């Protein structure tokens, strides 16, 4: 039985749980003081909840763990067959089976099963991503209940619990801090920013704050890096920020790629057209009474089978698979075949800043001393570099050694003596042990001196938010020194530079305008008997100067952005960082001609319609939460953009899954991000995206060429039947011969396009218009006249030879050969946009090998006795049996080359696909 007090507590707890489901700004917990928090969550800020109260809340609200809905694997697999293209393929498989075209039926069946397996694997991977998030809340933590400190499973925590956090702990739930001592938390899992965030217990006055700015809040799944704190649990399980992310990942539905939408539309359209044509042809044949009913029925079915491009799904899959293989060689791992082409269609690439566009290695790039300003060369933790002009500074037109600036000498010494960071060269890169800011100072010292710092420490004072600096007492060069680093405003008040505030204020403004984080370094010589540091007694320091620190942009990222912009792709930065820092990096990378930023709180103030209307005005999104990222992607998609999302953190997972193509980082990316994405950059190199876009466009070109090849050659087979019925002639081709044409093409010639290299200027044209479909009006016109040309030549040869008195089987064999050679010569026309006789003729050597194999197969079907009996062929005279088909193929080539010339004269050099 729960007493009245417990009922009141449960009511308060329910209010808290309900509130936490609202947008983050709804509670404004950061504004509440300790008594208001205790009242809101019905808890005691000294003794915590009672054991009975905690048990009652746990029973009422459930455990602090994330749950995932599990669907049986069998149901997941069966669901993969529930789409329109599978229905069409299944109908074709059944039709070919009942017509005893077993090989076609088997091939189509294998394609259906392969597609289902790929879809099933992708869905299972999405489920794995949710499971990874669920595992992030499993830990043990110290909680205060009944005034006693207990260690319990984090899953037993409830809202209102008083939790004690120490360095190394995983934060088990969302909490509002009521005490904090030098407390820093790594929040990159939620914000994407790698620098630990200094926390406080004091209420904050702002009514609207981005998650990264809530200094007195901590969140589940983040990690404590230093200090200690006590907090009141404000949300558990699904109501936490990480729980919201999990729900977002779960709610995001898998989107069909632009290519698959285009192929589905094309497949449905072709199927309807062929079925309608078959019905009309059957009715017309009945009216004309040219054939008996069984013969007419067989002829119509033959037309349907001949016209259906059964090899299209298989050809598309092979082209995509080849693209996947090529991308793997370029360190891009593609998890689903259609994703290969999608990146080639994107017109927006959203990307994180830290570790993607920047090195994620804090670097000193500016040093300001009382007399000079130095530019520090070299980026990241590599010690290659120095100050400008090869380690020298120009003063009054003269090059002088930087050592002549005594303040600079002191600054370098202080940098080495006050840092605790260590750098190790592992796996061909420098790895940091310690704080990123200390890493920047260690690197500065190594650049200037060529060796690691050695510290003879007497005592250290860690950074404290109360006085906003750290200090170290150490012996150096026969002197005992007190060295201080910290907030410029604070350190300046402790120095002898207080009368030069205008100079330092200007320096501070210049550094922050460049997006630099500024740290002041100062020193004081003390007596040898001084062994303790009293922060309240520090004064009269000598200011060595300021250092400006930034996470530097990757040089390859700047080049990649320039190439993407040239290719018509806009690059947008989405980051949890401060807008000034984000803007500075964006300008250094030349992200856009006019860089314009918006923050997460500003996005939260817009509804979905307003965001959609204004989303294209911005290219930098700062202080962005996971929900902001998801809304950004959705707003861009609502404006008909094909969107790529690049990220590496759990906070990126919902947006990665929502985007048309999600791209995760392979090295620094979390498992959640990699499993939510469609593509993984194995080496974390943003420049790989350029190669992926190029390959995506190359893949689309080859798929489009394959379709332009398959449709007219398939329709030509159907037209042979249609024209024969309309003219009242005997069918030139037998059903088994049509089957041979489809089968031999599927095994050979149509795969020639997968080896076709990318055309010049492929990155100079903009992204394709996915709304326009796969084929243009000119393509349909070309398909029409090529179909009539090939079929007409086949019928003419059949009629001509049979009129000369040759057996029908000779005419059929000739027609078969003419259609095959029509395909061969049409292949040369479609291979690229250049005239057939050009330096590009032998560029695709595999095409010639494939044609050779096809001709060998043709020799087999015509001259081998057992093949003749199955396919109704006969041996033919070489001169007219092969000469006439070759001449007909040349006619096809000449006509289509003239068509290509007229096409490009009218359209110009740039190809128009809509």
UniProtKB/TrEMBL annotation:
Topological type in the membrane: Multi-pass membrane protein
Biased composition (Polar residues): 1-23
Cited PROSITE patterns: ATPASE_E1_E2
InterPro entries per record: ATPase_P-typ_cation-transptr_C (IPR006068), ATPase_P-typ_cation-transptr_N (IPR004014), ATPase_P-typ_cyto_dom_N (IPR023299), ATPase_P-typ_P_site (IPR018303), ATPase_P-typ_TM_dom_sf (IPR023298), ATPase_P-typ_transduc_dom_A_sf (IPR008250), ATPase_P-type_domA (IPR059000), Cation_transp_ATPase_P-type (IPR050510)
Superkingdom of source: Bacteria
SMART domains assigned to the protein according to its UniProt record, in alphabetical order: Cation_ATPase_N
Family matches, as NCBIfam families: ATPase_P-type (TIGR01494)
This protein's name: Cation-transporting P-type ATPase
């Amino acid at each position: 039985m729960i007493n009245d007090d417990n009922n009141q507590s449960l009511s308060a707890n329910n209010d808290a749980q309900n509130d936490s489901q609202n947008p983050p700004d709804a509670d404004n917990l950061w504004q509440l003081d300790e008594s208001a928090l205790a009242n809101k969550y019905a808890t005691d800020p000294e003794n915590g909840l009672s054991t009975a109260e905690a048990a009652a809340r746990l029973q009422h609200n459930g455990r602090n763990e994330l749950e995932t809905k599990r669907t049986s694997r069998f149901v997941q697999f069966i669901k993969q067959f529930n789409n329109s293209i599978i229905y069409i393929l299944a109908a074709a498989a059944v039709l070919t089976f009942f017509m005893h075209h077993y090989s076609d039926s088997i091939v189509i069946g294998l394609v259906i099963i392969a597609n289902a397996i790929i879809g099933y694997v992708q869905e299972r991977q999405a489920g794995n991503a949710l499971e990874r998030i669920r595992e992030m809340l499993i830990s043990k933590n110290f909680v205060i209940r009944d005034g006693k400190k207990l260690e319990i499973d984090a899953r037993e925590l409830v809202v209102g619990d008083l939790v004690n956090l120490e360095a190394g702990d995983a934060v088990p739930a969302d909490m509002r801090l009521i005490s904090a001592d030098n407390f820093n938390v790594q929040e990159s899992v939620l914000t994407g920013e790698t620098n630990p965030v200094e926390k406080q217990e004091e209420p904050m006055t702002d009514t609207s704050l981005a998650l990264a700015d809530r200094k007195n809040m901590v969140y589940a799944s983040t990690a404590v890096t230093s200090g200690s704190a006590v907090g009141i649990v404000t949300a558990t399980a699904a109501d936490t920020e990480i729980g919201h992310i999990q729900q977002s990942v779960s709610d995001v539905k898998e989107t069909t790629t632009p290519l698959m939408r285009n192929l589905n539309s094309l497949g449905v359209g072709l199927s309807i057209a062929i079925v309608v044509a078959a019905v009309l042809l059957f009715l017309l044949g009945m009216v004309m009474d040219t054939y008996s009913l069984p013969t007419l029925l067989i002829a119509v079915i033959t037309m349907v089978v001949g016209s259906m491009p059964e090899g299209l799904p298989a050809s598309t899959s092979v082209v995509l698979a080849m693209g996947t293989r090529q991308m793997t060689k370029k360190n891009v791992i593609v998890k689903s075949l259609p994703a290969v082409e999608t990146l080639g269609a994107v017109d927006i690439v959203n990307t994180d800043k830290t570790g993607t566009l920047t090195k994620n290695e804090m670097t000193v790039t500016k040093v300001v001393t009382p007399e000079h300003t130095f530019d520090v060369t070299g980026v990241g933790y590599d010690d290659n570099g120095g100050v400008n002009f090869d380690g020298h500074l120009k003063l009054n037109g003269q090059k002088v050694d930087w050592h002549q600036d005594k303040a600079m000498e002191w600054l370098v010494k202080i940098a080495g003596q006050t840092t605790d960071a260590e750098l190790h060269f592992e796996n061909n890169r420098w790895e940091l042990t310690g704080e990123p800011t200390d890493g920047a100072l260690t690197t500065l010292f190594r650049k200037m001196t060529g060796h690691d710092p050695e510290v003879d420490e007497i005592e250290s004072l860690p950074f404290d938010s109360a006085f906003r600096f750290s200090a170290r007492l150490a012996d150096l060069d026969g002197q005992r020194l007190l060295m201080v680093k910290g907030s410029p405003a604070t350190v300046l008040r402790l120095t002898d530079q207080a009368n030069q505030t205008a100079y330092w204020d200007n320096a501070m403004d210049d550094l922050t305008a460049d997006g630099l984080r500024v740290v002041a370094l100062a020193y004081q010589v003390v007596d040898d008997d001084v062994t303790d540091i009293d922060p309240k007694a520090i004064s009269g320091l000598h200011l060595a100067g300021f250092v400006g620190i930034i996470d530097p942009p990757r040089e390859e990222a700047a080049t990649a952005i320039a190439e993407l912009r040239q290719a018509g792709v806009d690059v947008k930065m989405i980051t949890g960082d401060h807008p000034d820092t984000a803007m500075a990096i964006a300008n250094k990378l030349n992200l856009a001609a006019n860089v314009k930023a918006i923050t997460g709180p500003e996005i939260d103030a817009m509804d979905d319609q307003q965001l959609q209307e204004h989303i294209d005005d911005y290219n930098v999104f700062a202080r962005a939460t996971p929900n902001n990222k998801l809304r950004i992607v959705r707003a861009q998609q609502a404006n008909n953009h094909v969107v790529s999302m690049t990220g590496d953190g759990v906070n990126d997972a919902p947006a990665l899954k929502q985007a048309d193509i999600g791209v995760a980082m392979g090295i620094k990316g979390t498992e959640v991000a990699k499993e939510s994405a469609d593509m993984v950059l194995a080496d974390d190199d943003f420049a790989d995206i350029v190669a992926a876009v190029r390959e995506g466009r190359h893949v689309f070109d080859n798929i489009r060429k394959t379709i332009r090849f398959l449709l007219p050659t398939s329709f030509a087979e159907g037209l042979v039947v249609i024209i024969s019925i309309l003219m009242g002639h005997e069918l030139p081709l037998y059903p088994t011969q049509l089957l041979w044409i489809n089968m031999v093409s599927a095994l050979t010639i149509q795969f020639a396009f997968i080896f076709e290299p990318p055309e010049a200027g492929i990155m100079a044209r903009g992204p394709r218009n996915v709304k326009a479909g796969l084929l243009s009006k000119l393509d349909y016109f070309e398909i029409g006249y090529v179909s009539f040309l090939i079929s007409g030549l086949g019928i003419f040869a059949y009629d001509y030879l049979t009129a000369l008195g040759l057996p029908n089987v000779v005419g059929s064999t000739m027609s078969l050969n003419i259609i095959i050679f029509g395909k061969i010569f049409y292949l040369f026309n479609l291979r690229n946009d250049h005239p057939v006789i050009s330096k590009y003729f032998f560029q695709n050597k595999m095409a010639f090998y494939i044609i050779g194999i096809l001709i060998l197969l043709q020799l087999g079907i015509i001259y081998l006795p057992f093949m003749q009996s199955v396919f109704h062929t006969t041996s033919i005279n070489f001169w007219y049996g092969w000469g006439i088909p070759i001449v007909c193929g040349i006619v096809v080539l000449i006509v289509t080359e003239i068509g290509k010339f007229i096409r490009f004269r009218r359209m110009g050099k740039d190809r128009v696909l809509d």
